[in-house]
Inverse folding.
């Protein structure tokens, strides 16, 4: 066994549920989400803060969870891709990405969702330029982005219709 | 470590008042920076909780603070103590009070802190400065408190006991807290709460039961995909790789003892052990290449920066990474070879066992070059063109989890993409292929690159065996990926000569090409022949000679990369056509029309058959899409204003479904030819139709399209057809050439699934004839009240699939003998009608289908910064019959992004010592949403006569933007007497072209 490293308590509310874990202070938030909470929908594409695959919402703001330590999220509310589906039914954002073919391999998609959600919370009617700006930190190697832009526009329309 | 501090200050209060405050722990303690809460143990002793730590990360540490001396009103003295991380700290602080002349008090103070234990090594030399800062804060708050009514200090970073305290209190009493660098202001807090609320409101939007557009989406949009890193079986160990810091160096010594001793490390692997446990990977090439010894770890020397040297297996990735730091490797640097021409000289041989860097050398010559050049009206000579190194760099890195159980069975869950790596893996591990269960699930992109991750799969297998069957996971780091995880090869084109007639029709072409494949051949030298699938590109010239060479250099090993080997060749042909047009003053569109192949099917000089298409029609459509005439006008205006605006055409081919016989051009002994892919379609016990494929999909939607095709055969909607996700060798639906590569699924994969569905249908027909007592021609396949069924046309009589399945699986006694050889488990191996090519003459049909794409790019170059901006972009694609238009368009977009990225942004670069200078995404600059223009897409459908449904593979895209962007840049340089000779045109490259004074590099001889 490794010598016991000091641990620190992290208390967060994840997708509405309070969670508490003792973790190594060096643990990254993305590891905390994936390994401790077993929410594997949040992905790691670069672990160097470039690709945005690990994007989650921390107190409503999109953050790259590979770039924060778990302890830095203590006390915060986190939202991950797993918050979108409820009782087997999908959120308009998910619906829109599927309809518009805004995903191929799906690896970037959870991060795209989180950045898009934050955008739509601020701009219910985003222009393509707004979408580009909001997603400029999210890399996709499959889609060429065009359908992602369409997906976010469609999601905005769906949300407005329902809202 | 001991630290002492002292000082004094005065306040306008009486000694008595000051003393009263200082000697009361309840008043004194809250002044400590980072004070959080306290509890009095007795009148003199307080248990204080204070925030401690560095920067934004801190904890609440408990300190016991006792008032040990109180001489009213002269002196107060405290001691404090706490523990953390096997360290102890003690502090003493004393205050001596004196009257001042103006009725106030002067306070002289002394502080001392003693630190012992591990904290020192952690916090290091920074402690002193930090402690000083904390003391200053304490004194400042004392001064403030004594000059006004005391106020509790708001949360401030760190605690006074300062550095003193960093890590110095009891572990068990420590809880970490965020220590915001800036304490959130009420404003910020309100903003966050509001942001959270807005998100909540969005999340509460009504949900709907929606049918996803693709099968795969069902799980992927929910974050429920199963990528390799999501799979963590119990007892999992993690493997990390130590990579060489040098591009070329001899390994003098490796010492892993310290790494092995680190608690939590399970084992290490070095090259020496690998040599004992494995055989070198097989080599595809012939001659000297066969002598190359390629192992999963470097043995005697490293030959590129990033070459894996040691693997460490540990209980966590963090421990494995820590342990890598403890490995000592002594290297003796060697001279590097980084240039393809230099490599050809064999001045320094990378693989000493072979004595040469040449992996392949051969001549591809067709037609009558002599005559073509003798008759030419113009001869254009281009001294050098360069195709750069880049990679499609999937977002998900390479990964695997290997479990080699003590009974000898290996379970390999990986994101490899074809069965060929199995052929490398099994002999290297000295096992039979049936011992390896290879399976994949969701794969986060590959674009060819993941074909060559088998050395790491080998390592994980060995590590698992060494650890008695514990599962071992390896996740490539992004840096590892950038160093070694699949670069597309570089290619240079030397001394190109082009013969043209009076009308600018190209009649002859000769050139020398050198492919630089980096350190190890791996999938090479297949790239030395694969380009010849598209020998004349889309042009009708018949006389061609290419001297083709492939060399190794001290750079990362290359791997097939979207457009593998054909893309660099088509780019070359496109540059040739474009430069010739430019030099001869023939407009770009006219130059294409003069040279395009007319009639299809068309047999190329080397025997390949281009199946279908209409190039002039595609050009016309693309011109219309982009608004060609309008842009021509705008270009004239721009030129008038001195702006650099260019319009470029790129015509490209995506050859799909290989004839593996072409491998014999590089190795006449290669035991491959043709192509075969399997699929199975079965009825499960309950009558469910289950399809398993031999492909390794990575986002191309194979589950969706296979369900469409099988459903169509059986008269079922696709939802009633189950398609297994990913690959599993236990499904027995693969051959040695199965995989997801070379734009072939739509042909090979779907033909196999189609064939298997037909076989199943034939069995169902026989059973239904028996069960319904009907003739085959009266049967109808479809869906009834009880699900999928076979019925007698025009009657109520029907048997559903469960009943039919039951005949074979549970109710066979009533079956007549002639039906007892049915299995309802149909396996079909699709083999396209290939012949073995003529190896001597290098003539043969090398691929079955040729999808076409035509791109037009409008670009503007900023004459000051050389930055480029794409102003308009149009694509017309023709991939025969389209099975799923949405998926096809998605592939077009994705391939376009890779091409635009490569043409303008992305490059894998090395410095003169062979240091990789694009070791992260930040340096590599993969294309982002901001750099992507809006694409105007259109489609034409010229069904292939060679496939059952007329479809053609099209996933690789042929790199259209590399051609069109370079052509547009060439056009933008109109009148500058320069040619675009690089495939990569970052502002730096453009600047060099303009300002670098490089020679033009092209001459024209006209007769
Ligand atoms: S994994 Fe966090 S930004 Fe790439
Ligand atoms: S869908 Fe594959 S990375 Fe975006």
């Amino acid at each position: 066994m490794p010598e016991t490293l000091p641990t620190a308590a992290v208390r967060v509310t994840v997708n509405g549920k309070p969670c508490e874990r003792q973790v190594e202070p060096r643990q990254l938030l993305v590891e905390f989400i994936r390994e401790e909470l077993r929410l594997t929908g949040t992905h790691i594409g670069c672990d160097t803060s470039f690709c945005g695959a690990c994007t989650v919402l921390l107190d409503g703001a999109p953050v790259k969870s590979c770039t924060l330590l778990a302890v830095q999220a203590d006390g915060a509310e986190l939202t991950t891709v797993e918050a979108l589906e409820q009782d087997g039914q999908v959120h308009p954002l998910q619906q829109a990405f599927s309809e518009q073919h805004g995903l191929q391999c799906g690896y970037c998609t959870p991060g795209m969702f989180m950045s898009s959600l934050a955008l739509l919370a601020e701009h219910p009617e985003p222009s393509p330029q707004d979408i580009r700006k909001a997603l400029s930190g999210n890399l996709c190697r499959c889609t060429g982005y065009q359908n992602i832009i369409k997906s976010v526009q469609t999601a905005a329309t769906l949300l407005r219709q329902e809202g | 470590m001991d630290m002492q501090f002292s000082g004094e200050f005065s306040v306008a209060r009486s000694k008595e008042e000051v003393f009263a405050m200082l000697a009361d722990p309840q008043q004194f303690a809250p002044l400590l920076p980072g004070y959080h809460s306290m509890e009095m143990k007795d009148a003199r002793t307080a248990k204080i909780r204070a925030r401690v730590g560095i920067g934004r990360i801190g904890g609440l540490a408990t300190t016991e603070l006792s008032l040990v001396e109180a001489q009213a009103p002269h002196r107060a003295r405290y001691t404090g103590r706490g523990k953390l991380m096997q360290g102890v700290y003690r502090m003493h602080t004393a205050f001596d009070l004196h009257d001042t002349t103006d009725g106030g008090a002067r306070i002289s103070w002394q502080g001392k802190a003693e630190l012992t234990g591990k904290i020192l090594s952690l916090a290091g030399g920074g402690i002193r400065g930090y402690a000083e800062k904390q003391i200053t804060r304490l004194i400042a708050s004392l001064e403030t408190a004594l000059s006004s009514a005391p106020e509790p200090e708001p949360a401030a970073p760190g605690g006074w006991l300062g550095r003193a305290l960093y890590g110095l209190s009891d572990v068990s009493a420590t809880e970490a807290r965020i220590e915001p660098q800036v304490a959130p202001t009420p404003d910020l807090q309100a903003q966050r709460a509001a942001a959270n609320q807005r998100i909540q409101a969005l999340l509460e939007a009504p949900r709907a039961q929606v049918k996803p557009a693709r099968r795969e989406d069902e799980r992927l949009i929910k974050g429920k995909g199963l990528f390799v890193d999501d799979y963590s079986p119990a007892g999992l160990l993690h493997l990390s790789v130590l990579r060489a810091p040098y591009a070329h160096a001899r390994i003098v010594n490796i010492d892993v003892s310290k790494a092995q001793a680190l608690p939590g490390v399970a084992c290490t692997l070095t090259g020496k052990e690998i040599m004992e446990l494995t055989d070198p990977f097989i080599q595809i090439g012939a001659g000297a290449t066969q002598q190359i010894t390629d192992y999963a770890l470097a043995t005697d020397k490293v030959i590129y920066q990033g070459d894996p040297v040691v693997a460490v297996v540990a209980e966590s990735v963090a421990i494995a990474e820590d342990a890598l730091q403890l490995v000592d490797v002594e290297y003796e640097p060697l001279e590097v070879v980084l240039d393809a021409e230099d490599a050809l000289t064999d001045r320094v041989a990378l693989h000493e066992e072979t004595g040469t860097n040449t992996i392949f050398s051969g001549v591809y010559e067709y037609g009558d070059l002599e005559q073509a050049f003798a008759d030419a009206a113009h001869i254009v000579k281009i001294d050098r063109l360069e195709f750069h190194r880049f990679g499609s760099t999937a977002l998900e890195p390479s990964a695997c989890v290997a479990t080699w159980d003590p009974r000898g069975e290996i379970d390999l869950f990986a994101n490899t993409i074809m069965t060929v790596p199995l052929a490398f893996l099994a002999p290297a591990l000295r096992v039979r292929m049936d011992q390896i269960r290879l399976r994949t699930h969701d794969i986060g992109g590959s674009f060819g690159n993941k074909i060559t991750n088998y050395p790491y799969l080998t390592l994980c297998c060995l590590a698992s065996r060494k650890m008695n069957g514990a599962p071992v996971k390896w996740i490539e780091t992004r840096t590892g990926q950038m160093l070694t995880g699949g670069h597309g090869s570089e290619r240079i084109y030397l001394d190109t000569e082009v013969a043209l007639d009076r009308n600018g029709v190209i009649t002859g072409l000769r050139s020398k090409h050198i492919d630089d494949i980096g350190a190890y051949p791996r999938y090479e030298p297949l790239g030395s022949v694969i380009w010849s699938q598209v020998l004349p590109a889309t042009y009708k010239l018949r006389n061609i000679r290419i001297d083709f060479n492939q060399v190794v250099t001290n750079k990362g090993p290359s791997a097939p990369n979207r457009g593998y080997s054909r893309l660099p060749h088509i780019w070359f042909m496109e540059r040739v056509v474009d430069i010739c047009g430019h030099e001869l003053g023939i407009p770009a569109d006219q130059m294409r029309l003069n040279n395009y192949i007319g009639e299809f099917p068309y047999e190329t000089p080397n025997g390949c058959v281009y199946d279908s298409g209409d190039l002039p029609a595609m050009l016309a459509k693309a011109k219309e899409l982009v608004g060609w005439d309008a842009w021509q006008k705008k270009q004239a205006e721009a030129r008038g204003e001195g702006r650099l605006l260019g319009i470029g055409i790129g015509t490209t081919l995506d050859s799909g479904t290989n004839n593996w016989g072409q491998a014999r051009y590089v190795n006449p002994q290669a035991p491959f030819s043709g192509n075969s892919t399997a699929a199975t379609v079965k009825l499960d016990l309950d009558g469910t139709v289950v399809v398993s494929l031999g492909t390794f999909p990575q986002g191309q939607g194979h589950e969706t399209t296979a369900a469409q095709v099988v459903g169509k055969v059986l008269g079922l909607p696709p939802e009633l057809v189950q398609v297994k996700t990913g690959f599993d060798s236990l499904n027995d639906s693969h051959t040695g050439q199965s995989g997801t590569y070379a734009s072939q699924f739509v042909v090979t994969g779907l033909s196999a699934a189609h064939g298997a569905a037909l076989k199943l249908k034939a069995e169902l027909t026989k059973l239904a004839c028996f069960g319904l007592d009907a003739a085959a021609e009266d049967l109808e396949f479809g869906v009834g009240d009880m699900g999928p069924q076979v019925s007698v046309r025009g009657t109520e009589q029907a048997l559903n699939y469960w009943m039919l399945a039951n005949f074979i699986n549970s109710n066979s006694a009533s079956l007549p003998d002639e039906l007892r050889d049915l299995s309802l488990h149909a396996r079909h191996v699709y083999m396209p009608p290939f012949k073995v090519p003529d190896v001597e003459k290098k003539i043969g049909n090398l691929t079955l289908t040729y999808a076409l794409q035509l791109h037009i790019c409008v670009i503007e170059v900023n004459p000051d910064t050389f930055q480029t901006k794409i102003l308009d972009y149009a694509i017309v694609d023709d991939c025969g019959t389209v099975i799923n238009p949405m998926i096809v368009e998605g592939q077009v977009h994705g391939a376009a992004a890779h091409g635009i990225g490569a043409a303008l942004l992305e490059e894998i670069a090395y410095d003169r010592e062979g240091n990789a200078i694009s070791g992260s995404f930040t340096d590599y600059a993969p294309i982002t949403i901001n750099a992507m223009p809006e694409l105007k897409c259109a489609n034409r459908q010229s069904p292939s006569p060679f496939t059952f449904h007329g479809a053609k593979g099209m996933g690789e895209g042929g790199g259209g933007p590399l051609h069109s962007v370079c052509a547009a840049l060439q056009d933008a340089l109109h009148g500058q007497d320069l040619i675009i000779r690089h495939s990569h045109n970052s502002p730096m490259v453009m600047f060099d072209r303009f300002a670098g004074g490089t020679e033009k590099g092209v001459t024209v001889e006209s007769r």
Remarks:
- Residues A 44-47, 49-54, 64, 66 surround FE2/S2 (inorganic) cluster (ligand 1) (CB under 6 Å).
- Chain B has four domains: 2-178, 228-334+398-475, 358-390+487-661+838-998, 676-723+738-830.
- Confidence is low (pLDDT under 50) at residues 54-59, 118-126, 149-181 of chain B.
